[in-house]
Amino acid sequence: MRTIKGPALLIAQLADDRPPFNALPAIAEWAARLGYKGLQLPSSDARFLDLARCAESQTYADEITGTLQGFGLSLTELVTALQGQLVAVHPAYDLMYDAFAPAGVRGNPSARQAWAMAQMKLAARAAQRLGIKAVQSFTGSLAWPYVYPWPQRPAGMIEEAFAELARRWRPIFDAFDEAGVDVAFELHPGEDVFDGETFEQFLDAAGSHPRCNINYDASHFIKQGLDYVGFIDVYHARIKGFHVKDAEFRPTARQGFYSGYRPWLKRAARDRSLGDGQVDFKQIFSKLAEYDFDGWAVYEWEDCLKHPEEAVAQGAPFIAAHIIRVTDKTFDDFAATGAQRDTLRRIFGLD
Asked: What is the pLDDT of residues 58-97, one digit of tens each?
């Protein structure tokens, strides 16, 4: 067994034009003072990382890791959620998702898709230069508008969507395989791959590609009413990343997990800061330790109530308190008999 590494922090939601949230050295120093040991960087924010430059220049990649090391931090993973989202976009979302793309490809879905796929391949090379094992992403979505089976879906509709999704991702997976890096998908409502069933369907369509994996985040499962602890038992071999994020699901007489069209503050299913929701992190950390998870516990702040600076300050000690230093001995070793084979056979009455 391995002891999970951490605590680490995803800085995407903290990015701001004011210091210390506008430059890598400043935010690294701030996070280190709070007790974090690693940072997870968004690959779409050039204030922290120039993805294309990192893919091409080992010197630049070493500057990024060197900056973090100067504050006692490690780089845990890159996040490519926005680029991954644009690998597959249903036409209903074209205008909304165009905001994630550079101006030159907006209004042109095929050009936007090509840009996103190229970005993912850059991320594979950048991750290799940075010496990290995984890149977190989204799958994008073609089938999501049809998640509820009314009106009745035409036969083969979902299968066709997943076949196309896999067709787009296979060359990306191959690029990651060449780089020796995993793609760890966050299973997230709004994506075609949002739970275990849909992950299996995508994995099958992608030919069980070894680089198609999971970024585990229980917050997205508790809001769906899914057994988020049992999920680890089923999919632990594919879990390559871990977001520590809390959530709650408190249905009322008016709303359930769909929560009407209410804003986050008024939803029955909503994200919370660590310790303020319903996620059983003791079970999660125990399960991941049991299955020898070789990665980082990364805090992703999302909350409609608590200020991020307060939440992040509380997050480092919360995660540290949940990380289990795994044992290198069995508790009853003191009573070991050291019996040899001949004694064992005598115990069974065989000699």
From this structure: 999 999 999 999 999 999 999 999 999 999 999 999 999 9
Inter-residue contact 40 to 88 (CB < 8 Å): no
* Domains of the chain by residue range: 5-347
What are the Cα distances from residue 120, in Å, to 78, 80, 141?
11, 7, 16
> Residue 67: how many CB atoms within 10 A of its CB?
18
Is 112:103 a contact under the CB 8 Å cutoff? no
Strand-pair category, 212-216 with 239-244? parallel
Residue pair 7/36 in contact by the 8 Å Cβ criterion:
yes
Nearest-10 Cα torsion for 12, 90, 116, 76? 30
5-347 has which fold?
TIM Barrel (3.20.20)
CA 113, distance to chain mean position in Å, is 22
Report d(CA 249, CA 272) in Å as an integer.
10
Q: Where are the beta strands (DSSP E) in the chain?
A: 5-10, 38-42, 74-79, 134-137, 182-186, 212-216, 239-244, 246-249, 269-272, 296-299
Q: Which helix H or strand E contains 283, and what residues bound it? A: helix 281-290
| 138 closest CA partner among 92, 83, 208 | 83
- Could you tell me the pTM of the whole model? 0.95
**Alpha-carbon gap, residue 221 to 49, rounded angstroms:** 30
Strand partners, 252: none
